[in-house]
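INPUT
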Amino acid sequence: MRLTQYFLPVLKENPKEAQIVSHRLMLRAGMIQQSSAGIYSWLPMGLKVLSKIEQIVREEQNRSGAFEIKMPTIQPAELWQESGRYDDYGLEMLRIKDRHDRDMLYGPTNEEQVTDICRTHIKSYRALPINLYHIQWKFRDEVRPRFGVMRGREFYMKDAYSFDLTAEGARIAYNKMFVSYLKTFARLGLTAIPMEADTGPIGGDLSHEFIILADTGESGVYFHKDWQEKDMVADISYGDDLQPVVDQFTQLYARTDETHDANTCPVDEADLMMRRGIEVGHIFYFGTKYSAAMGASVSSPDGEMTDLHMGSYGIGVSRLVGAIIEASHDDGGIIWPASVSPFDAGIVNLKPGHSETDKVTDMIYQAAIKAGRDVLLDDSTDSAGAKLARMDLIGLPWQIIAGPRSTERGVVELKCRKTGEVVEHSPEDAAAALLAHLAQKVSQKVS
Amino acid sequence: MRLTQYFLPVLKENPKEAQIVSHRLMLRAGMIQQSSAGIYSWLPMGLKVLSKIEQIVREEQNRSGAFEIKMPTIQPAELWQESGRYDDYGLEMLRIKDRHDRDMLYGPTNEEQVTDICRTHIKSYRALPINLYHIQWKFRDEVRPRFGVMRGREFYMKDAYSFDLTAEGARIAYNKMFVSYLKTFARLGLTAIPMEADTGPIGGDLSHEFIILADTGESGVYFHKDWQEKDMVADISYGDDLQPVVDQFTQLYARTDETHDANTCPVDEADLMMRRGIEVGHIFYFGTKYSAAMGASVSSPDGEMTDLHMGSYGIGVSRLVGAIIEASHDDGGIIWPASVSPFDAGIVNLKPGHSETDKVTDMIYQAAIKAGRDVLLDDSTDSAGAKLARMDLIGLPWQIIAGPRSTERGVVELKCRKTGEVVEHSPEDAAAALLAHLAQKVSQKVS
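OUTPUT
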């Protein structure tokens, strides 16, 4: 893509309304535009990142054996009256009356809706286990929406729901999602620490939050200093017994400030890390809370009707865009992990019209396209300084920089956005080195 | 996918609430489930079709040079007050008050929202032309929602918006979308006739509806008997002058009953075809209607501020699922065009447990997976008749049918769903013939 033909409305000034770095950088990099408080339009480059995250989440859900469905955003109040949550849920629920004065709502979550699907169609244990997920817009009418897409009102979320005959079966489903989340966050370039959590208003007795560390995080988090990511996540097969994996990831203490209590914490103060973190996923097992209330039962092998054991599993897809930036940026701007970068690389032509520079940047641009890469060529007439700052701001992992001074010496610069390292190459070697970097499948960790 | 592991809740009975064939077949084939009046959940197989249609629409929008964005579903009333449509739009607009008593609405369309984006970021003619599209859920609170996804309340729509400095520029943008629609519908296996249309409440002076023919269509349509699809659509490049193409497709009379008038129709009655049709797309040029009202202007080359010339271009993505079925079904069920079929093919094992049949169907299933094909293997213990009826119902273009009687003779059946033609092959030849059929890229026309 040539920048002069693209829609990338970069802001020169820091927007006043943005209190945190991800919000500021997303506005400045032309990724989003506010529509009203806590509600955003995703502009082309922002949507590219959102869609890449969505696709990684989808692939790992599919691999775990879950089936994708799509439930509507607008739900009938009756379903929530059945579960008892219609009255419990406070003002965060956006309540709506349709033209016939029927009570509707914009779904903040979908336990009731998916339970209705299962009670309609699943009558026998033979159809179990099943896990249905969807990736859909949700609405929570936050009293004070802030922090951009990190705490918006309309947000994009993956929510999965597992249905099993027994608590043991539900535990297997829970473990699959646990591992799926580890794999998902690893592919996104993130280290997410599973932390034991309260189940809260959703009910139930087993729950983990997945937290990424970031100095700007909303929560204080506490974990044993020996906690470290296990490298073998990618190699785990969903068909394996996953309990040992889950045990390994949960054996060391890890809690957010919601459940951490210094008086009861079993870890010596000297061994306890205290940091800040951002919640990017949350998984729950809540047994028969909804199935019992809503009559979702199946015939079991002994012929008795049994309420379904359920779990629910959320990932904040739009929140992740902000969370990744919180975990991966510097003073110059965003530093995208390769797997979600809106373009694979950027090419900066410092002086369009200078024939050697035009020739060289075009050659590398065409070579990248021919190799199936999606690259952004800055062919604008802005100043060299503005172009370099913009390319750093938008955070593509690799940059090729070429101008009259370099091309007349027969070289261009290949810059790694994360390390800042710059290497001079001949144009041909730079193209080859860039493509070699892009071919590396190893995910680049950012936190 | 093995059917016994899939979530495909096929209904045996015709659902009473379904008045038209696509609604009946979508419910029976387990594609959708009603949540409330005119609002549906998409079950796994339904979502697969919806997503394939969405992706084809997206690809042709991208190829035309439009950029994908994502605007939110919930819009502030202020934007619609600026354009004057907040009061004009009737009860079909779902009006909402948030917790702070602010007037919001669930977007039925996005002219105001996208105009706000452009007036914020586009200040000079140098940034033009630009076409921004999104694929997003919309809501129209129909007084009497019916016909399933054909006239639902919450529906999935692609809407694009072009911005140009001049009317001539806008015409070029209009022509690109016109051609993009022809290509899109051709790839979906449909023949869509562009018909001159009123611009209606959206305003403006140039508009075409794209109509596919179906006996169950909602509109009467009238067109010259010599109208025929031009086969060269796929070869047209968006960079060409498209006016001759548009002229060629619009030179013969084609109108819906909304604008057809027998008294003024220039076509002899003998030359006039009268049929029924379904609207699947609608394109408009409406000049400066919104840009003038909302202050979306740019500096022109002579330094004057000029209101942007706009067009909007819609495709009903969820409606298309129903429309394709209306245009392509028989007494047995759906007949999917290959490009949107939820699976590439189905394999029916008429007697699981019969070792030769198990061996043969498994061999063909594995061969298809190895070739990268997405096939559904019916490995259930239902009766042979139920399996054959179900496979016809769900409409996959190709079926392999194997049972004890055929496999003991060393053959299986390869059936074309559309023609009903059945050919016996050895299992190896059947696998090869199936893969050869699937490799044919020629789109299969259904109307």
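end of record. The CA atoms of residues 89 and 192 of chain A lie 29 Å apart.
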